[in-house]
Amino acid sequence: MSLTPQDIQAIILSLKVATAATLLSLPLGFAAAYLLVFTRIPGRAALEGVVNLPLVLPPVVVGYLLLLLFGQSGSLGPVLRFFDLRIIFTLKGAVIASAVVGFPLLVRSIRIGMEGIDEQYLQAARTLGARWWDSLYSVILPLSGRAVLAGMTLMFARSLGEFGATIILAGNIPGVTQTIPLAIYEYTNTPGGDSMALSLCLVSIGLSFLVLLVSEASARSFRRR
């Protein structure tokens, strides 16, 4: 297996995009799961539908909608021009695309963990005079730690393999936005590029397997605690 400098760049960019998308989505994902589990806000069903929508939409559709939103003539175009920000065909666009596509997996995992918390713990905290933020930090966060880790793992792995939304919003620019899936796609469309595509496929499989091993080891550590 041989990798070119361009392939190594694609691997590094994939890791950067997956890490940034996961970390940036974590606070919003936790907040969304908390709202869906512990509150009865108006429009809760609509919020749940919006959160889960990227899970059922084709990634290309998600990418096109993001393009309409962040494009120069899109809904946020004037705001982006005012702050001199460019999203299309940049690494930021790749991060946003991966974050949107992987967000439902993060929320669903955290939500499952929160739904498994015994209501008696929260009632006991309220009986002792704990405010909602006290219950959050002393009860909900510790008991949903494994679910948060599982959600982060799923989202990170999903971001490593994101293709459709990324190529629409960020393009396939070597050294700038070309991640592992995009590099594989380019090799499959290049005569004689099958061996290089296979090399990157093996790298992708190895990275995903490593993520799963780390997740399982962390989960065992949580159980021992």
UniProtKB/TrEMBL annotation:
InterPro entries: MetI-like (IPR000515), MetI-like_sf (IPR035906), ModB_ABC (IPR011867). The chain crosses the membrane at residues 12-37, 49-71, 83-106, 163-184, 196-215. The keyword Cell membrane applies. The keyword Transport applies. It comes from Desulfocapsa sulfexigens (strain DSM 10523 / SB164P1). Pfam families: BPD_transp_1. SUPFAM superfamilies: MetI-like. GO terms for cellular component: plasma membrane. Keywords: Cell membrane, Membrane, Molybdenum, Transmembrane, Transmembrane helix, Transport. PROSITE patterns: ABC_TM1. Part of the binding-protein-dependent transport system for molybdenum; probably responsible for the translocation of the substrate across the membrane. This is Molybdenum transport system permease. CDD domains: TM_PBP2. Residues 11-213 form the ABC transmembrane type-1 domain. It comes from the Bacteria.
